[in-house]
């Protein structure tokens, strides 16, 4: 007979999967919107130039027809882009407040057994009383933290120790946490990441390694989620020993 603990764990994993799917949809929506804006400007320029050429074509039928053909093609392309944007766009989910301390407990309950099964140690530091009581958007932060911890469990070297902590407000690697924010630190032994501070600056790697590409995809999605929520995700330290990820997350007003 299945134990209640197993059923509860499966339920938590199902909820986590749904949060990740929702977060991926939101990230895709954001990227799609950016692409739409980037393409919209040159398309408007092309359409404007085509209309200008047609207006000055005079009696030259061939030029007028070519310009009109360009205008039709631009309009068709713009229509397709709008359709794709509408299909992929999803509303930003409502904020669901939750305390950092309770969120850390949930992350520990999900991933400490998995880390042990893989011969790893997951150390989740006890937040200070002030940090534990801070309220954040639980759904978005839970999806982001669990995505990062899941990646860490996959990438950490055998017998390594993964460390997750909420940094004190007054000191986080020499940088004070801004008022109204919580800063989290995740250390992943052996994980390689780009030696860049801002993940939004990451470029497409030349490597075709599937694990490397998956790593970048997860980090980019988490960075996009953090930015959408008003925070950011940075690589604090990247070396042969491992990678330090710093997540800055806003508190609920």
Could you characterize what this model shows?
By secondary structure, the protein is an alpha+beta fold. It folds into two domains: about 5-90; about 95-250, Heat Shock Protein 90. It has six helices and seven strands, in the order H-H-E-H-E-H-E-H-E-E-H-E-E. The strands form two sheets. Strands 2-4-5-7-6 form a five-stranded mixed beta sheet. It has a two-stranded antiparallel sheet with strand order 1-3. A hairpin with a 2-residue loop joins strand 6 and strand 7. The longest helix is centred in the first third of the chain and has 52 residues, at about 5-55. The two termini are about 45 Å apart. About 25% of the residues are buried.
Keyword list:
253 residues; alpha+beta; Heat Shock Protein 90; five-stranded mixed sheet; two-stranded antiparallel sheet; 6 helices; 17% strand; elongated
**SSE-based structural type:** alpha+beta
Order of helices and strands: HHEHEHEHEEHEE
Helix coverage percent of residues? 55-70%
Return the domain count.
Answer: 2
Sheet with most strands: 5 strands, mixed
- Annotation, overall tally of beta strands: 7
- Radius of gyration over all CA atoms, rounded: 24 Å
Spatial arrangement of strands, main beta sheet: 2-4-5-7-6
* Level-2 CATH architecture of the largest domain: 2-Layer Sandwich
Distance between the termini: 46 Å
Q: What is the subunit arrangement here?
A: single chain
Strand content: 15-25%
Q: What name goes with the CATH superfamily of the largest domain?
A: Histidine kinase-like ATPase, C-terminal domain
> Would you identify the regions where 5 or more consecutive residues have pLDDT less than 50?
200-205
Average pLDDT over all residues: 78
């Amino acid at each position: 007979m299945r134990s209640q603990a197993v059923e509860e764990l499966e339920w938590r994993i199902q909820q986590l999967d749904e949060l990740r799917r929702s977060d991926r949809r939101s990230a895709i929506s954001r990227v799609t919107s950016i692409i739409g804006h980037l393409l919209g400007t040159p398309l408007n320029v092309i359409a404007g130039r085509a209309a200008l050429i047609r207006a000055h074509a005079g009696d030259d039928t061939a030029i007028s027809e070519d310009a009109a053909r360009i205008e039709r093609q631009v309009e068709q392309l713009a229509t397709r882009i709008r359709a794709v944007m509408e299909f992929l766009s999803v509303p930003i989910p409502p904020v669901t407040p939750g305390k950092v301390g309770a969120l850390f407990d949930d992350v520990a309950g999900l991933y400490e057994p998995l880390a042990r099964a893989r011969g790893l140690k997951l150390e989740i530091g006890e937040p200070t009383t002030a940090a534990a009581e801070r309220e954040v958007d639980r759904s978005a932060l839970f999806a982001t933290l669990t995505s990062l911890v899941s990646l860490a469990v996959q990438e950490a070297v055998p017998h390594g120790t993964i460390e997750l902590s909420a940094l004190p407000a007054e000191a986080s690697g020499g940088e004070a946490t801004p008022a109204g924010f919580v800063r989290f630190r995740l250390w992943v032994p052996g994980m390689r990441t780009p030696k860049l501070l801002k993940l939004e600056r990451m470029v497409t790697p030349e490597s075709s390694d599937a694990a490397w590409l998956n790593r970048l995809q997860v980090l980019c999605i988490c960075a996009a989620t953090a930015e959408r929520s008003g925070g950011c995700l940075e690589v604090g330290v990247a070396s042969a020993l491992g990678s330090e990820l710093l997540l800055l997350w806003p508190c609920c007003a």
